[in-house]
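can u do me a favor
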C-alpha cells in the first residue's frame, strides 16, 4: 500500500500476522515496554488491551481492513478501518513504543484515510480516552475534531474490572474524508 522512505511498508494484514499484531498491540498499551512510549494506558487500565481471540475476529471480519506497517519484514505498527454507515471508524492503532515519534503513526493514519477516500469517502471517526491530551492533540494536528459525543469505556472494552478504580470515558473525534478523484 505504501512505501515510506523505502524503509516503512504498509500493507493489508494477513492471517499469519495474528501473533505479531497481538504482541505489538499489547506492547504499545500495556506492560513494561509500553511505558517507554507515549501511548501506554497502564496507569488507567489493567488487563489485556485486546485478547488474541478478539483480534482474530477483527482480522476475519469482512467489514474491517487491518493495515500493517513493517520495517525490514518486522511488524512495527497497525491500524484498522471499520466500515460504518457514514464512512469508517479508525481503531486498533498501535506503533512499537521504541519507534513512536518517527512518522509510522502518521503514515498509518494517512493510509487509513486514503483507504476510506478510495471507498468513496465519508466521515472517519475514532475514540480517545478522555484526558489523553497528548493523543487528542496528535489527532487534532491531523484535522480530527471532537464531536461532543462520549461513550463509557466499558461499552466498548467489554471486560469488567480492567479499568483502574474509575469509570473512563471515550471522546469521539471525527474528520470528513473526501472521495478519491
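np, heres the sequence
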Amino acid at each position: 500500500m505504501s512505501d515510506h522512505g523505502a524503509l516503512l511498508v504498509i500493507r493489508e494484514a494477513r492471517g499469519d500476522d495474528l501473533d505479531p499484531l497481538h504482541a505489538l498491540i499489547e506492547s504499545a498499551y500495556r506492560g513494561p515496554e509500553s511505558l517507554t512510549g507515549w501511548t501506554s494506558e497502564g496507569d488507567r487500565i489493567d488487563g489485556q488491551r485486546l485478547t488474541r481471540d478478539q483480534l482474530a475476529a477483527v482480522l476475519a471480519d469482512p467489514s474491517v481492513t487491518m493495515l500493517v506497517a513493517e520495517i525490514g519484514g518486522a511488524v512495527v505498527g497497525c491500524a484498522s478501518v471499520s466500515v460504518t454507515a457514514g464512512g469508517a471508524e479508525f481503531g486498533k492503532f498501535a506503533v512499537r513504543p521504541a519507534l513512536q515519534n518517527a512518522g509510522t503513526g502518521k503514515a498509518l493514519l494517512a493510509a487509513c484515510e486514503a483507504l476510506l477516500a478510495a471507498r468513496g469517502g465519508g466521515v472517519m471517526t475514532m475514540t480517545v480516552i478522555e484526558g489523553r491530551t497528548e493523543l487528542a492533540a496528535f489527532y487534532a494536528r491531523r484535522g480530527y475534531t471532537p464531536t461532543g459525543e462520549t461513550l463509557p469505556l466499558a461499552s466498548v472494552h467489554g471486560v469488567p474490572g480492567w479499568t483502574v478504580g474509575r469509570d473512563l470515558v471515550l471522546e469521539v473525534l471525527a474528520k470528513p474524508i473526501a472521495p478519491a478523484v
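The chain has six helices and eight strands. hope that helps!!
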